[in-house]
Amino acid sequence: MANRLAQETSPYLLQHKDNPVDWYPWGEEALEKARVEDRPILLSVGYSACHWCHVMERESFEDEATAELMNKHFVNIKVDREERPDIDSIYMSAVQAMTRHGGWPMTVFMTPDGAPFYGGTYFPPVPSRGMPSFKQLLLSLADAYENRRDEVLESAGTVRNFLQEAAVVSIPKSEVSESLLTHAATSLVGQVDNRFGGFGGAPKFPQTMNLEVLLRHYKRTGDRATLSGVELSLRQMANGGIYDHLGGGFARYSVDAYWLVPHFEKMLYDNALLARLYLEAHQATGDAFYLRIAEETLDYVVRDMTDSEGGFYSAEDADSEGVEGKFYVWTPQEIEAILEPDEAKLATRFWDVTQGGNFEGKNILNVPRPPEAVAAEFEISSEELWRRIVGIRERLLAEREKRVRPGRDEKVLAAWNGLMLRAFALAARVTGREDYREVARKNASFLLEKLKVDGRLRRSYKDGRARFNGYLEDYACVADGLVELYEATFETRWLEEAVTLADAILELFWDVEKGGFYDTAADHEELVTRPRDVYDNASPSGNSVAVDVLLRLSVFLDREDYREKAAAVLENLSGGMAQVPGGFGRLLSALDFHLSTPYEIALVWPSNTPDVPDTTALINAVYSDYLPNKVVAGRAEGDETAAELIPLLAERPARDGKATAYVCVNYACQSPTTDPEELRGQLAG
Question: Any signal peptide, and if so, which residues (predicted)?
Fold first, then answer.
């Protein structure tokens, strides 16, 4: 018989609906039961693509004896961390404080009023590696709550105080100047793995935002060594097993230091951030390799991760048929059964497929040899090699589609969709692909129609239900994506919607006393503390994105209140950026924008559409180089609505009946030009 989770929309919670555990979703019913019955709460937090979450479910939550202990002694609450980042953030901070490490599944034991007194991550079904079995832990903590209540309450009080103090702690400030950016870049360069790229050793995560800091440093200073570190990282990732060489897209991370063996789950936010970074690397270098990887990643999202209504799904699982990575790996015999002998020989050499394999007897496709070397070995040109590989890849992908696919988390999260919206909008400009622009438009319309309810943004959408109050990161990321979509279309409605969200950010999330943003809105349910996460981790923090989008909007709209709020956050977090630059990648990029004199580019054309050759030529000139610190506005000459909204566009005529570009800094403009080459020159220096 299904438990209460059967009524939820989260794929992760629904995975547990048939457990014998008497699970509750987070809510007043469960909290009231704990208070009335004076029982401790067992909080279990995870997400649908989490491998060890599945393991703990099989070993413990599906086990009748374990479930009996849980049901007898605890009120059991299951939370999807992706739906409720506030709860995840609060209790992960507690677990890290108690154990010095964190991760998922997260298991927290707390008093009926939500104060944690014990926590950890995965617990085994039998004693292992110094850890008690999960059943032993349940009995021990139940006994402590029943017979040593004073000790439990003292521990809970200590953790509660820690959480509340951590939410208001101030980091000593540093000087907000270009030297801070230089120090951060120098520190990050020193952490680059000069052999395999990326930062540090195993396990190795892409750390996309920190690579962007280095790319911006190269743009600002011309330091080629910094660019080399970025390029090494991007090439090693794209050639490694962390990249899906048949279907496109990146896995979450590599379990080794050289990007070969991934943790096979694919997350929307990783692919949004990586697609954008590869586009920017292409702009900075002109290298078509980076553009190909970006397009393959975005094409994967269109093909496998997009709802018919336009929303982007959250994740694909690491497991299929209960086996991690089974969907992705190959044997030589499987490839030989699909391809002609000469093609199979080429494919196995190109992707390093061997009889012994590189992963549990099978092969994760990767490209360890330079393609030029493989081409020389087969006595063909590099162009001919790639032509053949493209054809081979299509046949292998078609065969792979016949396999049992990994589970897919089909909930749509506002923040993650905003990140991907931004990537598609930029890609539309960089590639000129109209299909990417339409994907972005459709996604933006979906978010505003389905996830905006009574003027407020919601966090999650699935099965026709928009749920949970939007968090800071939801408002900020969607606004950020809408600003980029405006630049990709020059349709003012997207900018107007971004302004509405930005105003809501200031109204709902601003901390008047400390200067900064809370993660939850002022009218959010009361938790043990009001969370404020300022660090950029796997995805950017709401604070960082809010600062970035407020700065960009301040330039578009000449809004000094936006600029002042963003500057206050940068000042308050300056010490963090100086001390731990690796934790503030997106915020450092926002600081780079703030300290620069961003180009204000106005395009004006005489017709009603920007899609005429001379307008397109000017747009291509703007996006042909890496120019991160800019805003781009455009209008037809008679469009007074756009001119009223965006001061940069006011009183800017098209010259001689041609599309005209105005390059300005602080609203002081260079000579207007109709020549794409002259425009490139103005932007170059």
Answer: none
Q: Which helix (H) or strand (E) holds 127?
A: none
Helix ranges restricted to H, 74-148:
85-99, 134-147
Residues 64 and 66: their CA atoms lie apart, in Å, by 6
Of all residues in the chain, what percent carry a pLDDT higher than 90?
90
Are residues 384 and 375 in contact, defined by beta-carbon separation less than 8 angstroms?
yes
Q: What average pLDDT does the structure give for the chain?
A: 95
Those residues whose C-beta lies under 8 Å from the C-beta of residue 1, and which sit 6 or more positions away, are none
The answer to whether residue 254 scores a pLDDT higher than 70 is yes
Please tell me what DSSP assigns to residue 311.
Answer: P
Instruction: Return d(Cα 617, Cα 624) in angstroms, integer.
Output: 10
Instruction: Give yes or no for a contact between 207 and 583, defined as CB atoms under 8 angstroms apart.
Output: no
What CATH number was assigned to the domain covering residues 599-684?
3.40.30
Is residue 171 packed enough to be buried (19+ CB in 10 Å), middle (13-18) or exposed (0-12)?
middle
User: What is the structure's pLDDT at 169?
Assistant: 60
Neighbouring-strand partners of residue 461: 412, 466
Whole-prediction pTM:
0.95
How many CB atoms are closer than 10 A to CB 150?
A: 7
Residues of the chain with CATH 1.50.10.10: 178-320+409-595
Over residues 287-305, mean pLDDT:
98
Reported residue count of the chain is 685
